[in-house]
Amino acid sequence: MKKAIRNLISKLPVESLANPAPVVAVLPLEGVIGSSGRFSKAINLGNLEEKIVQAFDVYNVKAVALAINSPGGSPVQSELIVKRIRELSEEKEIPVYAFAEDVAASGGYMLSLAAEEIYASQASIVGSIGVINAGFGYPAALEKLGIERRVYTAGESKSILDPFKPEVEKDVKLMERLLKEVHDFFKNFVKDARGDRLKGTQKTIFSGQVWNGDEALKLGLIDGVGDMRAIMKDKLGDDVKFKRIKEEKGMLKGMLGMRADKASIADEVIKTLETRSEWGRFGL
């Protein structure tokens, strides 16, 4: 094996060894953001830590490109991922660029804020800088079925917004306050990252609306419209190479990972419905 490698190296031009082509490490950020227990193959720091480190350790890496395709999810996990990427970018002195694919919305857009510059395709869906909490209420159904709901708590707010009980005004106000606080956090996160590049009014930008690539550029949410290869070649030269960071696969990892999460068919159905609901908000 060593002899074969030496023979291969000996056939390479001397100039290619002295001046190797610049490399862009492509880090895919695909899926719903959240804990693994809630969403299958979710984006979270625990799942991504090794791949993030690997991206910055690629031989002759000159930039890390985030390939984002996410409808959002947990703002906490989004922030943790952004901070980890920024930390390594500063430590290694390697720039980061973000590229929105189909969707970079809500927490997915927050992920793009780890980058110095953000790009999208014309048809990409970008934005959704807002917070949502959705659910169902079943009190009428219980009454119709003759089922009595029994709940015992220590703490008057322990059972707020119980879906099996009628809504209480003070509980609704509490949830609205919590959503506003998280929204304020999201808005400040965007303003700190984008600064003077934001061009639209705050009322518009932070309305929760989504835009295509061209409109997102006008609002200053992104820095340009284009594809990853063209933009990175423009920055690093036509000889730039792309190294996509992939998930390690293996029988043991499969047995201890995905299979271990499948506690029951019902759990998988719920996870699938939740995931599709997140994507469905953007017509995907």
Give a quick precis of the structure.
This protein has about 280 residues and is of the alpha/beta class. The protein is built from 13 helices and 8 strands.
The stretches of 5 or more residues where confidence is low (pLDDT under 50) are 250-263
CATH names the topology of the largest domain as: 2-enoyl-CoA Hydratase, Chain A, domain 1
Percent helix range? 40-55%
Count up the helices.
Answer: 13
CATH superfamily of the largest domain: 2-enoyl-CoA Hydratase, Chain A, domain 1
- Assembly state: single chain
Which CATH top level class of the largest domain fits?
Alpha Beta
Q: What is the H/E order? A: HHEHEHEHEEHHHEHEHEHHH
User: In angstroms, what is the radius of gyration?
Assistant: 23 Å
Our measurement of the CA-to-CA distance between the termini, rounded to an integer number of angstroms, reads 47 Å
**Count the strands?**
8
CATH architecture annotation name of the largest domain:
Alpha-Beta Complex
Total domains, how many?
2
Largest β sheet strand count, sense and barrel closure? 8 strands, mixed
Summing up helix and strand content along with how strands pair, one would put the structural category as alpha/beta
Shape: elongated
Average of per-residue pLDDT values: 84
Report strand %.
15-25%
